[in-house]
Structure formats: C-alpha cells, structure tokens
Design a protein that fits this description.
Shape: globular
CATH topology of the largest domain: Hypothetical protein af1432
CATH class of the largest domain: Mainly Alpha
Distance between the termini: 37 Å
Number of strands: 0
Largest sheet: none
Length: 290
C-alpha cells in the first residue's frame, strides 16, 4: 500500500516546483517597469528561441484577435502590447511544466485554459478587471494541481483519475487532496505563486477561487478578481472543460459571484456561449488535442 506523501513543509514543496525560465522571469520584471520599451522586451525574448517561437505561435491564434500576421517577436510586442504579452509568457511557462503529458495533464491544462478564457470574457463584460490580467489569474488558479503533478505525480494521478472516472464534485476533490497531502491545491497554489514572485493578485485568486462567502471574499484585497475567476471556474465545470462530461450539478446563474459582479442571467449565458466558442477556436493553437 502506497504511503500518502503528507506535506510537512509547504514552502519547501512550493520551492520544488520549477521556477519560470530565466528569460521569462526577466521579462516579467521588465513588464512591471514603466521605463521598459518594446525594443528592450523584444531583445530579451529573442534570446530564448523556444519561448519566442511559442509566443509567436499563440500570438497568431484567434484568441488575441490580431488582424495581421505576426511574424517577429518585435512585431508581437508592438501589436499585442505589454498586458497581452504577459499572459502569453505565463501561458507558455505554465504549459511547459507538463512533461510527457497524459490524460490527467491534458485535462488539467484544458480546465485551466477554459477558466482563463471565461475569466477574460467576464472581465470584458463587466469592466471590473483588465481582461489580460483576468486571463492570467484564471490560467493560474489551479497551479496547485499542476504543482502536485510535478512533485507528486503518482499520488495526484490517483486522485485525478478517481475524480475523472467517478465524476467527483469540486468539493470532493478538495477533500481528497487534503486527505492525501494535508493541503488542498488552493493553498499550495497560493504559495507557489508567491515563490514565483508574481503579482499578489494571482496568489490571492489561487487561494480563494473556491470561496463562496461574499464576506470572506470582500475582505480580500482583490475581491472582484476572485469573483471573476470563481464564476469562470463554475462555467468551465458546467461546460465539462477539463472533465469527462459537463457537470449538470453546477448552477452558473444563482452564484455569489454574479451578485458581486453585477451579472444577470442574460449576461452569464452570453459569457458561457462566448467561452465555449473562443475555447474551441484557440485549443489547437494553445497546444491542446482536438
């Protein structure tokens, strides 16, 4: 019988998750500096051919809605802007954590991308968060699960396959994680993003994206960002993106998040439709199986 890998030091575990590549870290730092120019970013990105090629591939996807062919990194930086570039860099780095991906990794990536897409749609609809920042928050919300894949692959695979085959709810999956590891993916993900030194909003979203108490969410520094990803997470689950099938138990209309975001039924249904359409359009460009 396999012994559960109870996490004794969560901060050490977070440090065991590979950091972003050096070039990506440098770019993220530069993006936070108002003195950074497009040419400076292009010069740094061009030193990592793998990162640059993936950015170009995704920059030309329908998701970013560019009307012209982007053929160079300098052109990508100019056309997309710094905010979209940040989302591309983090997307490439997050996807790069999966080595030799199987069903578990593919479904986790599918769910993360779906939540990112839905988050961007909600942010654009409400105007309550910069859409590209919402995309990144959605993409990283389950980085704790990705961390389990990297550090405790076999143990996480058992949980993930049980969740997939038995159609477990989000709450049931969290309970299994706590039983197996001592922490659920929300806490682990929050710590990993702090180690990565990304903006605090992302670690807060990772920590609270399952919270349903409006009072608890509103005590956080970025309550609207949390509500956006919380709602996007429900939409992705309802659509079955990252699951074996749509989860009909999930109500995406009567949620605590919609009240915080000012979303009525018609707005939610439009977001659901746009999420599904946009996700299908970008899946191949973002490295997912058909």
């Amino acid at each position: 019988m396999r012994v559960s890998p109870q996490i004794e030091d969560i901060d050490k575990m977070a440090r065991d998750v590979p950091a972003m590549p050096v070039v990506a870290q440098k770019v993220m730092t530069m993006l936070g500096d108002e003195n950074t120019t497009n040419s400076m970013l292009a010069d740094v990105l061009s030193t990592d051919q793998s990162l640059a090629s993936r950015i170009l591939q995704m920059a030309n996807s329908p998701f970013f809605g560019t009307r012209q062919k982007i053929a160079s990194i300098s052109n990508a930086v100019f056309v997309l802007g710094h905010s979209a570039l940040q989302s591309l860099v983090i997307t490439v780095c997050t996807k790069g954590l999966f080595k030799n991906p199987g069903l578990v990794e593919e479904k986790l990536w599918e769910h993360s991308l779906a939540v990112a897409v839905a988050s961007k749609q909600i942010a654009g609809t409400t105007g309550l968060q910069e859409p590209d920042e919402a995309f990144v928050a959605g993409l990283l919300h389950d980085i704790g699960r990705t961390s389990y894949v990297v550090v405790y692959r076999d143990a996480h695979r058992d949980i993930a396959m049980r969740a997939y085959n038995d159609d477990l709810s989000m709450e049931e999956i969290g309970d299994l994680e706590k039983e197996e590891f001592g922490y659920d993916h929300s806490e682990v993900g929050s710590r990993v993003l702090k180690v990565w030194r990304l903006p605090d909003v992302y670690s807060r979203v990772a920590r609270r994206h399952h919270a349903t108490s409006v009072d608890l969410i509103e005590r956080e520094e970025n309550p609207q960002a949390i509500a956006i990803v919380g709602q996007a997470n429900l939409i992705a689950g309802r659509l079955g993106l990252g699951r074996a099938a749509p989860d009909k138990r999930i109500d995406v209309i009567a949620t605590p998040y919609n009240g915080m975001l000012g979303l009525d039924r018609d707005h939610v249904l439009k977001v659901v439709e746009a999420t599904l359409t946009t996700f299908k359009e970008t899946r191949d460009q973002f490295g997912l199986p058909g």
